[in-house]
Amino acid sequence: MLLLAAACLVAFVLLLYMVSPLISPKPLALPGAHVVVTGGSSGIGKCIAIECYKQGAFITLVARNEDKLLQAKKEIEKYSINDKQVVLCISVDVSQNYNQVENVIKQAQEKLGPVDMLVNCAGMSLSGKFEELEVSIFEKLMSINYLGSVYPSRAVITTMKERRVGRIVFVSSQAGQLGLFGFTAYSSSKFAIRGLAEALQMEVKPYNVYVTVAYPPDTDTPGLAEENKTKPLETRLISETTGVCKPEQVAKQIVKDAIQGNFNSSIGSDGYMLSSLTCGMAPVTSITEGLQQVVTMGLFRTIALFYLGSFDNIVRRCMVQKAKLEIADKTA
What we know:
Blueprint lengths: L1 H22 L10 E5 L4 H12 L3 E6 L2 H12 L9 E5 L6 H15 L4 E4 L14 H29 L2 E6 L12 H21 L4 E7 L6 H7 L4 H7 L7 H14 L3 E3 L1 H10 L9 H45 L1
Parallel strand pairs: 1-2, 1-4, 2-3, 4-5, 5-6, 6-7
Helix pairs in contact: 2-3, 2-9, 4-5, 5-6, 8-11, 10-11
């Protein structure tokens, strides 16, 4: 009886692997495709643009700083694979005015054709204790990280649905999967992207448009260097429990997942574990992906409890250390 059950299980798994490709999205062909990257003048955004350009795409870079845009354009153009490829630069703040964003997307489409892939990479991080952060910081991060993704996506979605082809990528963060000390403003803005992406995917899937949410870990970018200047001690120590990724590595994985139409894009073993743990009601690209999540959930939850315990210990140690310093200052 046990052998029969085992044989049935193996047959079921093999059947899933056979059927899975039949229900997965058809990969997006990047040669000749028009890819728009917001926040594309530096960091992960620029590396995503380079990765797409290497595969033959036409690129529109969108960012605020015109000088950085032109510098990024020159760097990206070194990777051309044919003399027809174009890198277009548009300077605009994607978080401030929807009409402006809509207009620049129209300009880009007039020059390079309909947008095949939009990568929402514009964002920033500010950290601090909840009661020490100004309310304006919460408003600023929600505007840049959330509305800065809503506006460009809103500007391209109608054309994608009409053409019945497209990819929309939202670059979130592992802090958009797990709330951490010091990230009350940042995490909430990144968690919001997940809700937007899930709802949007359900709307556009019948039109062969697929959404990808990327959850990169700490990545060696100018943004991380700026963020580290004001990180609370607790946040910095928790962040140091994992390594720092190269932006090229992150970009390559995001582009690969976007082409395949995968909803989740994670980096490394920690990223895979977090994506499985926090999958909830998120869509899956294949039956096998869902099966893997079911099988690994218990083990990953056990590992996660140890992580959470270590994070709590870091916070407690910092609190005790600060208390001792305050007593020493008073008695000095």
